[in-house]
């Protein structure tokens, strides 16, 4: 028997105790990238600083006017839409914080071998497009519909399965208006950049990144639950390999801190001067609005409430928080945790799953305060 | 004795044989990023796909109008220039390919522990700004001047030395017009993004990235050679720790291939169908124009010339090359190498140095051709 396409894949695995990152993980880290945490200062992430994760190659679309988005399956009136025709619908703009479902994976023990995120796979943008529910209403969804499947133009092999990237949403989410799912053609007021799905992508506020199908070229309504690779094999919460597992869906609450002071190049250790330091950052949750943020400056021993800014009408975007800290000479570990309206918060000890999904372990930022005690 | 700021740094070191990447290297890989190689298709790299390397934090400059660039030292008329005043000079736009001096470092054995690039730390942009020689002429350089030092606003610790990022250029390079060094305020026709030096940066065509000082706030003319950390300690070609070493300067020739076909998610192995495959990519050199590109489809055993496009008037930008390959079923390794007008080319066995600088080992792209023999 010759080698087959499926054989280019290696099985999913966990890193051995103490095993450093391999070149496969590095190849993903070098092409995908996180938000440099100092960019948490911006309400809306400037272009190029928003996290990016692409499973396969970024499709090359030199002529976006030739793109077409088809809407079919269990609908009465299939649609074929160009980006120009989508721009003729009333535009909706929503500010949304997106986070990769694998954020935090590289901090797990044992480490699932995949895209090795620390805590930085996040970003916030203003997405402009057409509400998906309007397109589905125009197409006329049949009464037996249950799932809606979204297909991107990105193509590859994954764990032996050759595929276009595909994800499904329950019909109720696809046709709902809270959150309103968008077929987006603009990011921060400009056409989508190639790495964010040019010319069209899905934006599902409150859901992890795997739902936000980029380079969107087809929407198919199904009368049966969608069981594609990214739905049934990948993006499941499992502790054992054979389990069906729970699907990854909404973003768990998380708060991040802008590391204060300045860094060491290699260790990324932080240095601050003694005295007043304003700690600040962002907090978000896909389950319910963030209701409180707490800060610890003693490695999680004690916590105190931070000041939390209102959401300024942006329910699906991160909220700014701040807290004043009086730094004394010596070593400190700063942490922050978010609480949301569903009663969820962030753990200080990590629950673990084989895929490394939906982690929201509290961030730890070691800081050295230089100088003499005052 | 208490801990000092310098103690947050760890000494420079080489990875042990077989040692995987550590979390320090991952922290750099997660925030800095390379060019996804499929983006070699673009003449000018779209925003967000150009490689980025920042030693410390990206400075936060909410009000760029308040920025000032000072020009001083051994000059008769010190200058203090705002971005608005720089825009009043006649604008020059140059298309320049930039590459990090550490590109390829993570492929070395032993591996220098630092920013772990594979081959992707490159990008090409249209930089618009004011020729540095005009500013130095206006300031009136004193006859005893030898070096010009550029200071960025990025601040940190590195190998125990707290510093603003600083690099020097010999006076002849700073005041020359081939290449013309720019004080740039725009990238691809838009204001510089934060991660590329907003609001002002240096662009030195043909030199590695360490010379391209971002967040530029001061230019000082010296009557003695500049001996700052990034000039005399970092960015030197050394085989032994104690050596003075040779400075890293011009970009060595390199060609890269757009990996053909489609990838496996985790291994990044490539799959192509049997038959005609157009191999294409880019080639550049800082020493002299690229004169030829060769392609190998048998892991470097034989080489044949690729078609090399003219530079279309962009001496300092990469040039497109292409070559048709008839893929037969089985496993192949594709490589490409550039030759330049100075007689330099790319090695197939890696010369090594402790910093992992100025590598230009030929790229190897393993490809599996699926299907039956024809």
Automatic annotation (TrEMBL), chains A, B:
UniProt entry tagged with the keyword Metal-binding: yes
Keywords: Metal-binding, Molybdenum, Oxidoreductase
UniProt-listed Pfam families: Mo-co_dimer, Oxidored_molyb
Alphabetized CDD domains for the sequence: SO_family_Moco_dimer
Region (Disordered) residue spans: 337-356
Boundaries of every Oxidoreductase molybdopterin-binding domain copy: 56-229
The keyword NAD belongs to this UniProt entry's keyword annotation: no
InterPro entries: Ig_E-set (IPR014756), MoCF_OxRdtse_dimer (IPR005066), Mopterin_OxRdtase_euk (IPR008335), OxRdtase_Mopterin-bd_dom (IPR000572), OxRdtase_Mopterin-bd_sf (IPR036374)
Cofactor annotation: Mo-molybdopterin
Annotated Moybdenum cofactor oxidoreductase dimerisation domain residues: 274-367
Designated name of the protein: Sulfite oxidase
Originating species: Streptomyces massasporeus
């Amino acid at each position: 028997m010759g080698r087959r396409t499926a054989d280019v894949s290696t099985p999913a695995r966990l890193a051995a105790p103490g095993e450093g990152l391999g070149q496969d993980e590095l190849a993903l880290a070098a092409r995908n990238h996180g938000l440099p945490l100092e960019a948490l200062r911006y309400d809306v992430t400037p272009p190029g600083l928003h996290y990016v994760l692409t499973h396969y190659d970024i499709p090359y679309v030199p002529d976006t006017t030739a793109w077409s988005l088809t809407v079919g399956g269990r609908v009465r009136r299939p649609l074929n839409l160009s980006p120009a025709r989508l721009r003729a619908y009333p535009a909706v703009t929503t500010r949304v914080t997106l986070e990769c479902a694998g954020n935090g994976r590289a901090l797990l023990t044992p480490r699932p071998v995949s895209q090795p995120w620390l805590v930085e796979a996040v970003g916030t943008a203003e997405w402009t497009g057409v509400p998906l529910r309007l397109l589905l209403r125009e197409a006329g969804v049949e009464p037996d519909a249950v799932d809606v499947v979204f297909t991107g133009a990105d193509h590859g092999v994954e764990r032996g399965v050759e595929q276009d990237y595909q994800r499904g949403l329950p019909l109720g989410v696809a046709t709902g208006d809270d959150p309103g799912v968008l077929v987006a053609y603009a990011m921060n007021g400009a056409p989508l950049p190639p790495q964010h799905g040019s010319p069209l992508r899905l934006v599902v506020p409150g859901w992890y990144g795997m739902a936000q199908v980029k380079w969107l070229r087809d929407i198919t309504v199904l009368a049966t639950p969608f069981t594609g690779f990214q739905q049934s094999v990948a993006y499941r919460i499992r502790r054992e390999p054979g389990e069906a597992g729970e699907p990854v869906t909404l973003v768990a609450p998380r708060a991040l801190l802008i590391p204060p002071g300045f860094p060491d190049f290699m260790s990324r250790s932080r240095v601050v001067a003694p005295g007043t330091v304003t700690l600040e950052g962002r907090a978000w949750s896909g389950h319910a609005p963030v209701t409180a943020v707490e800060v610890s400056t003693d490695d999680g021993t004690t916590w105190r409430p931070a000041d939390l800014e209102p959401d300024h009408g942006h329910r699906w975007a991160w909220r700014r928080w701040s807290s004043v800290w009086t730094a004394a000479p010596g070593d400190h570990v700063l942490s922050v945790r978010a609480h949301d309206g569903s009663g969820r918060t962030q753990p200080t000890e990590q629950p673990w799953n084989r895929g490394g999904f939906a982690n929201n372990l509290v961030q730890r930022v070691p800081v050295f305060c230089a100088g003499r005690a005052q």
